[in-house]
Specification:
elongated; 11 helices; 379 residues; homodimer; 8-stranded parallel β-sheet
């Protein structure tokens, strides 16, 4: 009945020995792997003179955020105002990498800006006006990073000229301060060795905007980029001054299948109980879409809903809300009803977001419940 | 800036007039539509002599469960022990339509069985033994429904003989009581008018098991079935004594696109703010996969991640965690940055599960926050 998360490279999760009594599904986090992941990224950033500002959307935990700060992170990244308020307790330097502009959100961010450094990424005059009005009303200032779209096509202005226009607008607006540029190269899932040309294109877009700004008297003191798949190649994007990877703290099947880490670097996994084997060639585990989410594995969309290291032939092929159907027809042996199996999810961030707490597992110690402080902070 | 959820059949959500100040994304529930949905199902069940036992996974709210009970529901259905504990406060008659068997779960269910009627659906001897041991230790009894697979291929024994074998096993086991049979026809998404032959097959499977049980002295006092798509055809499955629909309380794009209700029957929707229009032909709303989930619309898998009634040409084509990318290239007019838009999700159940509370909207009254009591009850 051991969860038995021995990865192919021989690492035994600390969780394996002490998690037999946890109610399932149990999100367990190996402390040693987490610390190693945190240190590796901090060391990389330090070696290349980059400030590290981890995106806390992955763990949503103040305790984990403090570990990242202690390891050298310069500040924290969030998406929502509620996350900013929580993470403001772990760091006094918060970046909202999200175009916050609705009235409730800008009011809360302005309140936080009275006691912490708050910067917000924007791509519209509407957002600048909303943030400026809230900051002015709160008698504070909010820093702005103008977001430049570098290929994802999600948010961010498309041209250096548009980035300049927003900088000019902001420079004439009370309550806000232009601090630099931000991009999110989330479209890059190429293997690290093949990222060169893609990252050169990112560099060129940023350099163009920086040059245009400079010719009009604007300085991009901060140029913020990064994402876990591109994180360890960030030094190839010369304009970057800081990076914002998130998933690296835990990793998941997205980062494994993308070739950005090994299974042994996956710190977070979910222990499930097999609850049925009534249908031939299949077992059912007690985690479904309300545990794993229906996020596909981006680099391997046909690989199912997660990896079960102990049963390499097993495939988690279908989720309903509380059931995970595992095809075991290609397994020599398969788990029995009542057995516990450990699953590494496709995308760890939304899985953590479904939990009130995760189990923090140090070697030879009972697991500790760590609150997911910013869970449910949707606005 | 009105959310403006006027549906094509002319209904204005109660939410429309009073929700302008809610922080977005805001899950709003129209009280009148909800009550109408609850009454319609209760009336249908009463008219056909069926007991109604709503699955509370959809709303996870004791307040909504009490409305269902007040409208005539005979008891409540849940999937997990934590849900059973919460819903045990709304009804003393709880069915766990899930093969609960791990130690923590059966212990909690046995504790609840001391103060309420608790029945559990099982499909293995392991589950029977685990529940029996826990019930015996708690000096109580747990009722069992043997689950028969009627075509979904998820859980449930495949033959009448296997159902009989489990009944025989249970009848020789202290702590449990055989109460009947359960099935889940979740494979049936055919339009109501075309469900006849599929439901006849369900009837035949159930009738076969009932006859075999009868010839061995076992009575299926309860025969539990149902699901929202088949709910209003449940009278065609003669063996049913009760049904367990869940989604009908709110409805969603799954039930609309399946032809089981109209947009005007959708009680729950999510108000979002447009946060970016920097990319041509697209706007971005402040709800992503952490608000809508990546569940596809089962009857219309290419329809995107939800419906925006006010902008019929708009398609919510891509979600990241906190961003929803809306293709507006086919819209004559499109929402501007800062505007609020209302979205009906594909699958409402996991969306509710992401919220601590939803906004309950009576006509001409300020929205009230209703806690999602059983959110996060994964075990």
């Amino acid at each position: 009945m051991l969860p038995n998360l021995r990865t192919p490279d021989g690492h035994d999760h600390a969780c394996a020995a002490h998690c037999n009594d946890l109610p399932t599904p149990a999100l367990v986090v190996d402390a040693a792997i987490t610390r190693r992941n945190i240190k590796r990224m901090a060391d990389y950033a330090a070696a290349h003179g980059l400030r590290l500002r981890p995106h806390t959307k992955t763990h949503k935990s103040k305790r984990l955020a403090r570990l990242q700060i202690e390891a050298g992170a310069a500040g924290l990244t969030v998406a929502k105002a509620g996350e900013a308020e929580e993470m403001g307790e772990a760091s006094a330097d918060i970046l909202v990498a999200y175009p916050a502009l609705d009235p409730a959100r800008v009011r809360r961010l302005a309140a936080l800006a009275r006691i912490a450094s708050v910067r917000v990424a924007v791509d519209s005059g509407t957002a600048i006006a909303a943030l400026a009005a809230a900051a002015t009303a709160a008698r504070t200032k909010i820093g702005l990073l103008i977001e430049l779209d570098v290929g994802l096509g999600r948010t961010g202005v498309g041209t250096a000229e548009a980035a300049l226009a927003l900088a000019q607008l902001a420079s004439n607006t009370e309550g806000v301060r232009i601090d630099g540029l931000l991009c999110y190269p989330g479209h890059i899932w190429a293997p690290a060795a093949a990222q060169g040309p893609l990252l050169q294109a990112v560099s060129a877009r940023l350099a163009g905007a920086i040059a245009l700004w400079s010719s009009h008297g604007f300085e991009a003191r901060i140029v913020s980029g990064g994402s876990t798949p591109t994180a360890f190649q960030s030094h190839e994007v010369k304009p970057y001054t800081e990076i914002r990877p998130g998933t690296y703290v835990f990793n998941d099947m997205n980062t494994v299948q993308g070739g950005f880490c090994t299974l042994g670097d996956c710190a977070a996994s979910i222990i499930c109980t097999v609850v049925s084997d009534a249908v031939r060639g299949q077992v059912v585990i007690d985690g479904g879409s309300k545990t794993f989410t229906n996020d596909v594995c981006i680099p391997a969309p046909d690989s199912g809903h997660g990896c079960i290291p102990k049963y390499p032939g097993a495939r988690l092929i279908r989720l309903s809300e509380e059931h995970g159907q595992v095809d075991v027809s290609n397994c020599e042996k398969h788990p029995r009803v009542g057995e516990r199996v450990t699953v590494i999810p496709n995308h760890i961030c939304p899985c953590v977001n479904l939990q009130d707490a995760f189990w923090w597992c140090e070697a030879d110690a009972a697991p500790q419940a760590v609150p997911v402080d910013a869970r449910g902070k949707l606005s």
